[in-house]
Write a structure and sequence with these properties.
The complex is a heterodimer of chains A (about 220) and B (about 280). Chain A is of the alpha/beta class and about 220 residues long. Chain A has helices spanning about 45-50, 85-95, 100-110, 125-140, 155-170, 180-190, 205-215, and strands spanning about 1-10, 20-30, 35-40, 60-65, 145, 175-180, 190-195, 200-205. Helix content of chain A is about 35%, strand content about 25%. In chain A, a hairpin with a 5-residue loop joins strand 1 and strand 2. Classes of the chains: A alpha/beta (about 220), B mainly alpha (about 280).
């Protein structure tokens, strides 16, 4: 479970006032949840992910993580661009205390990077990057995956493989995904929420959420 | 830090003591991983890059000592102590001090994305860098000590004093580094001040002048600076009573403990305010 208790997040803007990302929001994310979070550019989707992942701290309120949560998976985040994919896999395995060789093998098998596994990450295309990130985080067996920038999840073949993996191996894991594209949310999520002007509104019905979002 | 619970564990799990132990285990794991990564990114995968870690401070200290003893030709000679060796022994601790303190803010800024992995704490990032610098200076010192012992037939007078001096140097610089990192994360003005302050500390540290040569009043003033104690201690370890030395390990230990505590508190205070 991830529990948000009266969480507020704002940034002080240079010169005048504050910008609100979240206002006094409470929410719970449970194992097995597949939540899509829709929001316009600049609504604070990535900030929300950093809050959920414990990277950034809320301005007010508390966030409790009672399951292991991945780092927010976004382009180039959590990997070092001058190191190879395999080196990054070794590094992440060491950080999370997992067997190094096994993890490199697992990432290789899932991400299908072939010879690129031994190339610096800076040479990767955005599709390869997201395959590496998903491969890395899936190999870590987190209880909850935070997926940012769903726009570059990869081609349809890889989307299918990811969906399959989430369905089978990770049946009771949670996924939180943010996107400004309703389509991505539809292909991975069961419920959705809209982040708009500091408020996070949850919808049980995906279609209703998408319709509301598109009418914004 | 207190939030460092296990990879898959729950925060409520286990008693306080085992949680603390578990926290240390994770911290060690993380610092080790960071060290390995730091070595890879900084030196690439070739062995020459690794060698550079040792050659860099050695060459710089050699160059300064060379300029001072042959070009400027100044400085009084002590029986059995050449200006060359004296400069080397004086400059190397300052070199380490500067490397640790003035690089700490940059270390933090360029490694912010590492904090996306919630196991990695601010302190781990800084600690890994400092350990690498410490390893470099200890290796270089060892090489120099052996070199001087063999070619100049001048074995170090007091190895424990030399070693403790270096350990205290590392501890003191580490504490100031934490403060520098936290300070520059909080304010840009602080960040701009660090470099000039570190350079200004060179003449005030007695790195290149033995305190014995100074008038007693000035010596008293310099001895407020813990750096002066470090340099005197290292010189004592090297040259012994050829050169009377003035230092208090107790004062140094106190100063090191103080800056470390303040540094840890400052990092902790600044962490929730970091924006990515």
């Amino acid at each position: 479970m991830i529990v948000l208790r009266n969480v507020s997040k704002y940034y002080k803007m240079r010169g005048k006032g504050v910008r609100w990302i979240l206002r006094d929001t409470s929410a719970v994310i449970r194992r097995g949840d597949r939540v899509g979070i829709l929001g316009r550019n600049g609504a604070g989707k990535s900030t929300l992910m950093r809050l959920l992942g414990g990277v950034e701290f809320p301005s007010e309120g508390r966030i409790e993580r009672r399951m292991s949560v991945s780092w927010p998976l976004a382009h180039g985040i959590g990997v070092h661009s001058s190191l190879t994919g395999a080196d990054n896999a070794r590094f992440v395995a060491r950080i999370y205390g997992r067997p190094v060789d096994e993890i490199v093998e697992a990432v290789n098998e899932f991400a299908e990077l072939g010879a690129y596994m031994d190339m610096p990450v800076s040479t990767y295309s955005s599709g390869m990057m997201s395959r590496l990130l998903l491969g890395l985080s899936m190999a870590m067996d987190f209880d909850c995956y935070l997926i940012d920038e769903a726009t570059s999840v990869g081609d349809s073949r890889f989307i299918m493989r990811t969906q399959q993996r989430l369905e089978n191996k990770l049946r009771d894991s949670a996924v939180v995904m943010v996107s400004h594209h309703a389509m991505h949310i539809r292909s991975f999520c069961r419920t959705a929420a809209i982040l708009h002007e500091g408020s996070l509104t949850f919808f049980e019905d995906l279609d209703e959420a998408i319709a509301t979002y598109e009418a914004l | 830090m207190s939030e460092a619970f296990g990879a898959l564990g729950k925060p409520e799990e286990g008693r306080d003591f085992s949680r603390t132990l578990n926290g240390f285990a994770i911290q060690w794991r993380v610092v080790r991983a960071l060290l390995l990564r730091e070595m890879q990114t900084r030196f690439g995968r070739n062995q020459l890059g690794f060698l550079w870690l040792f050659l860099e401070p050695l060459m710089l200290a050699l160059a300064i000592a060379f300029v001072k003893s042959f070009v400027l030709g100044r400085g009084r000679e002590y029986p059995g102590v050449s200006t060359f060796v004296f400069c080397l022994v004086g400059y190397l601790p300052y070199f380490t001090f500067r490397a640790i303190v003035s690089r700490a803010p940059g270390t933090l800024r360029s490694n912010m994305s590492l904090l996306y992995h919630s196991h990695i704490k601010l302190i781990d990032v800084v600690l890994a860098r400092h350990l690498l610098e410490a390893a470099a200076v200890v290796t270089v010192m060892t090489m120099i000590v052996f070199g001087i012992a063999i070619w100049a037939d001048l074995p170090p007078n007091n190895v424990p004093a030399l070693l403790f001096g270096l350990i205290l140097l590392f501890l003191y610089a580490q504490g100031l580094g934490l403060l520098a990192a936290a300070g520059s994360a909080a304010s840009e003005v602080v960040e701009r001040l660090i470099h000039p302050l570190v350079y200004l500390s060179l003449p005030l540290s007695g790195a290149l002048i033995p305190l014995h040569e100074l008038p007693p009043k000035l010596r008293e003033v310099l001895l407020w600076n813990p750096q002066a104690h470090i340099h005197e201690m290292v010189r004592d370890g090297f040259f012994g009573h050829v050169l009377p030395s003035y230092y208090s390990p107790g004062y140094l230990l106190f100063a090191a403990a103080l800056v470390n505590l303040l540094g840890l508190a400052a990092l902790r205070a600044v962490r929730p305010k970091l924006e990515f």
